């Protein structure tokens, strides 16, 4: 992967309009920075977009959602969808910086949409998630095949927000993570290896892996496809020979923080994960 030709494309959408900001694949690029966090939990994840000398003030009002494609000129991917919370311009100077504060995914529906959930005893996790997904108007959930048919012996009734429904559902399935990603729910096991494995190979690290118990912290150039619930494989040969580190090379991702810009050196993600050999043995 070419880590130098960095690109960010952004689409803002309102009820009757949209604004597209596209990074040229060659030549001079606009200054766009994005930073954010993905936790894999049922909590609001923040996303901040900073654009220097934005050519229009129209972005300051009327847009509700944002879609971001990011990566490198030859490997762009649709990365994040979110809800616009606040837009403002920092104190004007030689360069004007427009700051767009967002939440990752459609957390407005997640926090405020009312759901009337009634499930008979022995319902499956798949059926429960499907009912919540339908009420939210989301796309079909991504649910790990190894836990999809898990059952709950007791019935479940919830009349409240989607988040309240998920919190009650997690009491039936305490070792399952349910989070919002783009316009769908992602459901994956918390303390065991998932049956459906999405694996990403990190070709380089920015610094040596940091190990603590059965967990590992990694800092690498940002791969926009990496999500909590995925696996990452990372190079360790150099660190094993020079620093005497344990020969672990694969981890189960529990959170991702990222910082990425079209210009300059800003290109980093911090991953917290569980070593593959320790899944099921380490409490998070």
Question: Can you characterise this structure?
Answer:
The protein has 284 residues and is mostly beta strands. It has four helices and 20 strands. Strands 1, 2, 3, 4, 5, 6, 7, 15, 16, 17, 18, 19 and 20 form a 13-stranded mixed beta sheet that branches.
What's the gist of this structure?
The protein is mainly β and 284 residues long. 13% of the residues lie in helices and 43% in strands.
Order of helices and strands: EEEEEEEHEEHEEEHEEEEEEHEE
Low-confidence stretches: none
Number of strands: 20
Strand content: 35-45%
Radius of gyration: 20 Å
Estimate the helix proportion, in percent: 10-25%
| Structural class designation | mainly beta
Overall body shape: flat
Counted by DSSP, the helix tally is 4
The average pLDDT is 83
Alpha-carbon distance between the two ends: 32 Å
Largest sheet: 13 strands, mixed
Which helices and strands, and how do they pair?
Layout: E1 6-13, E2 18-21, E3 32-38, E4 46-52, E5 65-72, E6 75-89, E7 97-104, H1 107-112, E8 114-119, E9 123-124, H2 125-136, E10 142-143, E11 151-152, E12 156-161, H3 162-172, E13 176-181, E14 184-189, E15 199-201, E16 210-212, E17 215-220, E18 231-233, H4 237-243, E19 250-261, E20 267-275
């Amino acid at each position: 992967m070419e880590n130098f030709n960095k690109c960010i494309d952004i689409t803002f959408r309102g009820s009757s309009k949209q604004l597209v900001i596209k990074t040229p694949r060659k030549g001079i690029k606009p200054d766009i920075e994005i930073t954010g966090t993905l936790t894999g939990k049922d909590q609001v994840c923040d996303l901040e977009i900073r654009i220097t000398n934005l050519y229009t003030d129209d972005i300051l009002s009327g847009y509700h959602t944002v879609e971001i494609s990011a990566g490198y000129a030859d490997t762009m991917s649709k990365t994040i969808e979110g809800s616009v919370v606040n837009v403002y311009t920092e104190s004007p100077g030689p360069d004007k910086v427009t700051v767009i504060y967002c939440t990752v995914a459609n957390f407005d529906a997640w926090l405020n949409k009312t759901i009337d959930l009634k499930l008979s005893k022995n319902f499956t996790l798949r059926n429960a998630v499907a009912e919540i997904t339908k009420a939210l108007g989301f796309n079909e959930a991504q649910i790990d095949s190894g836990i999809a048919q898990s059952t709950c012996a007791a019935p479940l009734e919830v009349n409240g927000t989607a988040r309240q429904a998920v919190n009650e559902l997690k009491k039936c399935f305490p070792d399952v993570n349910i989070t919002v990603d783009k316009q769908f729910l992602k459901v994956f096991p918390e303390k065991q290896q998932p049956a459906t494995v999405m694996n990403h190979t990190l070709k380089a690290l920015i610094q040596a892996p940091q190990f603590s118990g059965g967990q590992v912290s990694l800092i690498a150039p940002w791969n926009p496809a990496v999500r909590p619930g995925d696996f990452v494989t990372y190079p360790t040969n150099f660190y094993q020979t020079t620093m005497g580190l344990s020969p672990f090379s694969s981890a189960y991702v529990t959170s991702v923080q990222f910082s990425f810009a079209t210009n300059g050196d800003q290109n980093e993600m911090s991953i917290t994960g569980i070593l593959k050999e320790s899944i099921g043995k380490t409490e998070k």
